[in-house]
Amino acid sequence: MDTPDFEQSFVLSEAEVNPIVRLNFGGKEKLVNGFGLWTILVSLLTGPIWSAAMYIVAIFHQLDESFDQDKSIYDKTGKIWSKAWLAMTMSTPSVAGEVERLKDGQGACLYVANHASWLDIPVLCTVLDPVFKFIAKGELGNVPCIGQQLRGVGFMCTKL
């Protein structure tokens, strides 16, 4: 098995990015190309559908607390969104390596993402089965859809 070359840089030059839009966040310039604009559009189109699906599952959970106790149906909404988002952005991942060890179900497992981009969230949602949970910093709880998924069903299940 070949060892990956970790010395290789995956940072693109401005010419390789071919920016259409330049954004400035806190003194740091962000370059957005056509693909970036497409991913934003796909997110804006699919996000409300994903949010609505999570809300519907939360309503069922509120009506019957025994419904979806491990939140597998709720988490499935994130998996469906992730697969659709990746397909629409032509970013479908492939799984390689010793994946049988992952499917044996021999107890808990911890996956750590390097967060080189936001892509690791939908990729992990797509390739990890069955139910899994993210550990994330608190600020992500305010991000539309992602925050709703991270907080889980409970945030909507207040008694009237």
Layout of secondary structure:
Blueprint: H1 14-17, E1 21-25, E2 28-32, H2 34-63, H3 72-88, H4 100-103, H5 120-127, H6 146-151
Antiparallel strand pairs: 1-2
Would you kindly provide a written description of the structure presented here, covering whatever features stand out?
- By secondary structure, this protein is mostly helical.
- Helices cover 43% and strands 6% of the residues.
- The protein has 6 helices and 2 strands, in the order αββααααα.
- It has helices spanning 14-17, 34-63, 72-88, 100-103, 120-127, 146-151; strands spanning 21-25, 28-32.
- The protein has a two-stranded antiparallel ribbon.
- β1 and β2 form a beta hairpin.
- The radius of gyration is 18 Å and the shape is globular.
- 14% of the residues are buried.
Key phrases:
43% helix; 2 strands; 160 residues; 6 helices
| Strand percent estimate | 5-15%
What is the count of β-strands?
2
> Which H/E pattern describes the elements?
HEEHHHHH
Shape: globular
In percent, how helical is the residue content? 40-55%
Uncertain stretches: 155-160
Beginning-to-end CA distance, first to last residue: 58 Å
Radius of gyration: 18 Å
Mean of residue pLDDT values: 79
Number of helical regions: 6
Spatially, the strands of the biggest sheet line up as: 1-2
User: Tell me about the biggest sheet?
Assistant: 2 strands, antiparallel
By helix and strand content, what is the structural category?
mainly alpha
